[in-house]
Amino acid sequence: MTHGSTPVLEPALFLDRDGTLIADAHYLADARRVRLLAGAADAVAMANAARVPVVVVTNQSGIARGLITTAQYEAVRDRTTALLRKGRAEVLATYHCPHWGHPTEPCDCRKPGLGMYRQAAAAHHLDLAHSAYIGDRWRDVQPALATGGIGVLVPGIETPATDVEAARSALSSRLFMAEHIVEAVTIALSMIGAERPLLPTVGAE
């Protein structure tokens, strides 16, 4: 969208993949094993209906570790997109970080780093400060702290207890916890949807 010659930035939903949209199979290499989690397609479809773009962002250190190939990652990505589409849900784009994330090999794109989000924002005219960041790990939610957006943790069976505790300690007018992905997207859309702008963050960190 543009206003005159200047692009108008839009809010988006940034969703984690493994453990949030699909079952976390740990370095998933076989696209035939992709399974959408309950409510995943419905949640994305809700965002589609609200005209809020959905971007999937996923750490894939298995590529750097030699546990999966880029081609295998792409097959899983495409299968995930196809299953969502079968549920009448569309994603705008998917970004992945293929790096290991070892302390001696830092990168800007591995979550909670902002590299993938900035790439998506530049490509699709997205407003990171008025977007929502949703996932089953603390690192999926942390970008909200750096950008000023909304973060929603959706704990799953693979979520470490330390991540849940970190989220509970940070709960505020911008950081939330939800029991499932549909609830998380409902919270996010109530705050960033086109009809209902982001709530003020007075008193929140």
Q: How do the strands and helices of this protein lay out in sequence?
A:
Layout: E1 2-3, E2 6-7, E3 13-15, H1 40-49, E4 54-59, H2 62-65, H3 70-86, E5 93-97, H4 115-124, E6 132-135, H5 138-141, H6 143-147, E7 150-153, H7 161-170, E8 175-177, H8 181-192
Parallel strand pairs: 3-4, 3-6, 4-5, 6-7, 7-8
Antiparallel strand pairs: 1-2
Summarize the structure.
By secondary structure, the protein is of the alpha/beta class. It contains eight helices and eight strands.
What does this structure look like?
The C terminus is likely disordered. Helix 1 runs parallel beside helix 8. The chain has 8 helices and 8 strands, in the order βββαβααβαβααβαβα. The protein is of the alpha/beta class. A hairpin with a 2-residue loop joins strand 1 and strand 2. 40% of the residues are buried. The strands form 2 sheets. Strands 5-4-3-6-7-8 form a 6-stranded parallel sheet, with helices on both faces.
Helicity range of the residues?
25-40%
- Alpha-carbon Rg, integer: 16 Å
Q: Please name the CATH topology.
A: Rossmann fold
- Mean pLDDT, nearest integer? 91
Number of domains: 1
State the distance separating the first and last CA atoms: 31 Å
Q: Which oligomerization state do the chains in this entry correspond to? A: single chain
Number of helices: 8
Q: What's the CATH H-level homologous superfamily?
A: HAD superfamily/HAD-like
Top-tier CATH class? Alpha Beta
The tally of strands reads 8
Order of helices and strands: EEEHEHHEHEHHEHEH
In the CATH classification, which architecture applies? 3-Layer(aba) Sandwich
Q: Main sheet?
A: 6 strands, parallel
Structural class: alpha/beta
Proportion of residues in extended strands: 5-15%
Q: What sort of overall outline do the alpha carbons produce when their principal axes are compared?
A: globular
In which order are the strands of the major sheet placed? 5-4-3-6-7-8
Spans of at least 5 consecutive residues whose pLDDT stays below 50 are: 194-205
